Amino acid sequence: MTSALHEATTWPADLHTSVQREIASRQLAEHLTRLRQRGPLKVLDVGCGPSTPSLLLARAGHLVTAVSTDTLQLTAMHDEIADEPEEIRSRLRLVEGDGSEAGRHFAPGSFDLALCHGVLDAASEPDGMLAALARILNPGGLLSVTANNGAAAALAPGVAGEWTATRKALAARSVGAGDAVRADSPDSLATMLADLGAPVLAWYGVGVFSALRGDEPAPRRGSKTWQNLIAVEEEAGRVDPYRGIASMLHLVGEKTVR
Q1: pTM over cut 0.85
Q2: Whole-number Å distance between alpha carbons of 47 and 35
């Protein structure tokens, strides 16, 4: 049921986005074995950006509802699935909407898996989004969250020799351009998820090295360079100190009975 999460898709082209999608998918696949007795999973993907595994899950036989307020993202996903067989396209529903309002549109226990990948970056307060997703999960369902890692904020500008930006990042633990982009820590997100009834099963780093060269084109999938890159990123994302300085955090929580 999980092997199809490792299949290639055509959307990501830059190095870092390609690595994010591959590594986060592999990390998530380990936990889907907990749900194997449920058969095809009901999945809610909030944001449905290029680093989320919605299409891979649909290919694996699961029923995916992808929600986003970004019409460009929805259009890009629509284009990506256009050449898929009908049976796969029928398992992936695209909806324009706000994931933070999922609780208004879906009943509690509507989904077995919720994906919140790269969505918290633009949220001033992530609590509402995560609370909505925890609410619509079945007991024992999984919540997969990726977010910018505040501890890694200074690495990319530092490597590039952008010292003013590096100083600001060190002082503020912020990521990217301006106050509109937030960053988190594994402890703060884990506390949040526990308070919402979805304690963390495991956390990982994503993009330990690729983020430092993120705008480069990705190596050809299946090539020796790609295989070595993924092997390195997969191992580094699991162990300290490397996972602690990865550009992205990936946490997988399990909905408890409350």
Answers
A1: yes
A2: 23
